[in-house]
Specification:
single chain; 201 residues; alpha/beta; two-stranded antiparallel ribbon; 6 helices; 35% helix
């Protein structure tokens, strides 16, 4: 069974969806570690209540992003992790970290990539005036939200929507899509061809 490390900075709603999927055998993987850059992140307490090992590496205590990430990698590697999952981890990763886990980092983004990469994606989509946006699960490469796409889920932007109501509906979708997409990857039944993730039937 594959081992996952989940990186978090906040509430951990997407992390919780993965924890529940693992417990219910919908996700054929063990969550070996939840790691945060913030001691006060509510996600840490959720993980502890689920009996999952936690760790904190405060980025403010390190002189460089690289030294911060080296410490994270040291802890992650000590748990024998197969995949690193970004679930609301609010730090941009350097090429050093990404190359160390090449092809093994998975992120979820609240837009239909390649549209609206970066921060505040729901607000970007809402202000642009598009009629549809969505959620993307993708592998992480050295660009910003540019890695091969694993799965997507579309959402209509309704006339009565606000940024907040849109984000709330999309978060519910993220919670459904994320475990399904991670399960596809941990099954090992896929190949990456260029930017395409091709799954076996």
């Amino acid at each position: 069974m594959k081992k996952l490390c989940i990186l978090v900075s906040g509430r951990g709603t997407n992390m919780q969806s993965l924890i529940e999927a693992s417990a219910e055998k919908r996700l054929d993987a063990t969550i070996a570690l939840v790691l945060s850059n913030k001691e006060e992140a509510p996600a840490l307490e959720k993980a502890r209540r689920a009996g999952i090992a936690t760790a904190v590496v405060n980025h403010r205590e390190y002189e460089s992003r690289e030294s911060f990430e080296e410490k994270m990698a040291e802890i992650i590697d000590s748990h024998g992790v197969d995949f690193v999952i970004l679930a609301g981890f609010m730090r941009v990763l350097t090429p050093l970290f990404i190359r160390h886990y090449k092809g093994r980092i998975i992120n979820i983004h609240p837009a239909l990539l390649p549209s609206f990469p970066g921060v505040n994606a729901q607000k970007q989509a809402f202000e642009y005036g598009v009629k549809w946006t969505g959620v993307t699960v993708h592998f992480v490469d050295e660009g910003v939200d540019t890695g091969p796409i694993i799965a997507q889920m579309p959402f209509e932007i309704k006339d009565g929507d606000t940024v907040e109501s849109l984000a709330e509906r999309m978060l519910a979708g993220e919670n459904r899509l994320f475990p399904e997409a991670v399960q596809k990857v941990v099954s090992g039944k896929y190949n990456i061809s260029g930017r395409r993730v091709i799954f076996e039937e």
